[in-house]
Amino acid sequence: MTVPTGRRERKKAATRQKIADTALRLFLERGYDAVGIREVAAEADVAVTTLFSHFASKEALVFEQDANFEQGLARAVTDRAPHEPLIPALCREVHAMVRHCTADGAAPIWRMIDESPVLREYEDSMRLRHAETLAAAIAADPESSRSATACRTIARFVLDAYSLGREAADPEAAVNEIFRMIEAAWEATGPA
C-alpha cells in the first residue's frame, strides 16, 4: 500500500484503518453476525456515514486489503520491468499476498470467514473481481499475444494459487508448485 503524502490523505487513511481495526476486534470478540455497523461506528468514534464513506458494506470491513490486493495484482503486470516475464512477476505478488494473509494472528480471521456463509460468498465474489481485473491487465500487456480466454484462465489460476497457498501447511512451497503449473499452462497458450 502506498503511504498517503498529504495531511488530509494521512488522516483519511488513519480513520479508515481505525474503523477496520475496530470492526475486526469486535467481530473476533463477539462474532461477525453479533456486531452491527452502528456498533462498529460508535466504537471507532465515527459517524455511520463516515464508516460507509470508507467501506461499502459490513463484509468489506473484514476484507479491508481488498483494493490493495486487486491493485497489486494489476501492478505486477503493468509495472514490471521491460521484458520481465509475466509469470514470475505474478508469483512474487502472490507470495506477498499469502505472507500477509498467513501472518501471526490471521488464523482467527480466516476461521471467522470460513464459518460465515456471507463472508465466504463475499470472498468468492471478490476473488472473481480480482481475476477479471488481472485478466484485463494481462490482455492489455503489449508483450502478451494470448487470447482473452487464455488471459482469463491464467488470471483465475493465479487467484486460486493465492487461495490454495494461503490454506497450505507450507504456503511458500505450495505457491511455487502451483506457479510451475501456471508457467506451463501459460507457455502452452503462447505462439507456436
UniProtKB/TrEMBL annotation:
What Pfam families has UniProt attached to this entry?
Answer: TetR_N
Can you give the residue ranges of the HTH tetR-type domain? 13-73
* UniProt entry keywords in alphabetical sequence: DNA-binding, Transcription, Transcription regulation
- Work out whether the entry's keyword set contains Glycoprotein: no
InterPro entries associated with the record: Homeodomain-like_sf, HTH-type_TetR-like_transc_reg, HTH_TetR
**DNA-binding region in chain numbering:** 36-55
Tree of life domain: Bacteria
| PANTHER family the UniProt entry points to | HTH-TYPE TRANSCRIPTIONAL REGULATOR BETI, HTH-TYPE TRANSCRIPTIONAL REGULATOR RUTR
Instruction: Please report the name of this protein according to its UniProt entry.
Output: AcrR family transcriptional regulator
